[in-house]
Amino acid sequence: MGKFIITKRKDGEYQFNLKAGNGEIILTSEGYVAKSRCKNGIESVKINSQIDSRFERRTAVNKKDYFVLKAGNGEIIGKSQLYSTKQGMENGIISVKENAPTAEIIDETN
User: Fold this and answer.
1) 56: part of which helix (H) or strand (E)?
2) Between the N and C ends of the chain, which has fewer C-beta atoms within 10 Å?
């Protein structure tokens, strides 16, 4: 079962990582000034991860593949790691789709 882990960055902003059942990070959020906005981002991932068109497949300057997940307004709500193959990236998208809807939220900032 997947987990959303909320942490606080060195700059004081909140972020979340979505981890798959095996503990691997499959999606990382942008930074949020308020924890409540971070939690809203998690809810947005749960919803938008079920819509394939919200995943944008990209290639980094080092030629590695990655994806971003966008909200309905086009704003990026999460970014994947870099993958060495397109199939690895596609597997990452599948993992987000499978894990996000039922993932528990763990707040490590308390």
Assistant:
1) strand 55-59
2) C
CA dihedral 80, 30, 75, 4 (to 10 degrees): 70
SS3 content of the chain, % helix, strand, coil (to 5): 30, 35, 35
Q: How many other β-carbons are positioned within 10 Å of the β-carbon of residue 20?
A: 18
Mean pLDDT by 10 residues, the chain (110 residues): 96 97 95 96 97 97 97 96 96 97 94
15 near 32, Cβ under 8 Å? yes
pTM comes to 0.94
Q: Please classify residue 45 by burial: count the beta carbons closer than 10 Å to its beta carbon, then call 0-12 exposed, 13-18 middle and 19+ buried.
A: buried
Count other Cβ atoms within 10 Å, centred on residue 5. 17
